[in-house]
Design goal:
The complex is a heterodimer of chains A (117) and B (111).
Chain A lengths: L4 E3 L2 E4 L5 E6 L6 E7 L6 E7 L2 E5 L6 E5 L5 E5 L8 E8 L12 E2 L3 E5 L1
Parallel strand pairs in A: 2-11
Antiparallel strand pairs in A: 1-3, 3-8, 4-5, 4-9, 5-6, 7-8, 9-10, 9-11
Chain B lengths: L3 E3 L4 E4 L4 E7 L6 E7 L5 E6 L5 E3 L2 E6 L4 E6 L8 E8 L7 E3 L3 E6 L1
Parallel strand pairs in B: 2-11
Antiparallel strand pairs in B: 1-3, 3-8, 4-5, 4-9, 6-7, 7-8, 9-10, 9-11
The chains are: A mainly beta (117), B mainly beta (111).
């Protein structure tokens, strides 16, 4: 059973460029969230997608946008890259939207490591 | 003030030691609490959920004090394989929705 898969695993961009990161959720999962983890920091929530719509958003500028496809896979797009966007971008999936069950938790992918020069 | 605060460490302990990590959170409306483990350059993985009554999973014990907005993790009989970063995590709703992470506490278990 494949877990969450992300691509690419590593990439290097220059300031001002645009980047697209891709995520396939775990089988059976339909909700995808994206997190940014800068070096030495904990992951920070970017946004969550369910039924192809953005459902929650963290404190990130509009340069960060996303999309979810009918097969539940997702993309994260970052425009006008800044040096500070260098980070590990983590995709996480779960089944459904709501619920307080401790068992209904996120499964993280291995991440895409973005370096902006 | 950060939403979730942790001592970044590192905590260097000998094998077999008992080590405790603490965490405080600022939003009293938080409903769900977790400890995640993250190995170097890998993704975070759920270690355990934290319940008000306290809970134990083998050598790991987690405690939650809602009144003090304080979460703890105790690791007994530390193993070399416990070396990792331990992330304190809270959520306003369930564990599958927006998670707020602390910066993590680094643990190094040595021979």
């Amino acid at each position: 059973d494949a877990g969450v898969t992300q691509s690419p695993t590593h990439l290097i961009k220059t300031r001002g460029q645009q980047v697209t990161l891709r995520c396939s959720p775990k089988s059976g999962h339909d909700t995808v969230s994206w997190y940014q983890q800068a070096l030495g920091q904990g992951p920070q929530f970017i946004f969550q997608y369910y039924e192809e719509e953005e459902r929650q958003r963290g404190n990130f500028p509009d340069r960060f946008s996303g999309h979810q496809f009918p097969n539940y896979s997702s993309e994260l797009n970052v425009n006008a890259l800044l040096l500070g966007d260098s980070a590990l971008y983590l995709c996480a999936s779960r089944e459904g939207l709501a619920g307080h069950s401790g068992a209904n938790v996120l499964t993280f992918g291995a991440g895409s490591r973005l370096t902006v020069l | 003030r950060k939403e979730v605060e942790q001592d970044p460490g590192p905590f260097n302990v000998p094998e077999g030691a008992t080590v405790a990590f603490n965490c405080t959170y600022s939003n009293s409306a938080s409903q769900s609490f977790f400890w995640y483990r993250q190995d170097c350059r890998k993704e975070p993985k759920l270690l355990m959920s934290v319940y008000s009554s306290g809970n134990e999973d083998g050598r790991f014990t987690a405690q939650l004090n809602r009144a003090s907005q304080y979460i703890s993790l105790l690791i007994r009989d530390s193993k070399l394989s416990d070396s990792a970063t331990y992330l304190c995590v809270v959520s306003l709703t369930g564990g599958g929705n927006k998670l707020t992470f602390g910066t993590g506490t680094q643990l190094k278990v040595e021979l």
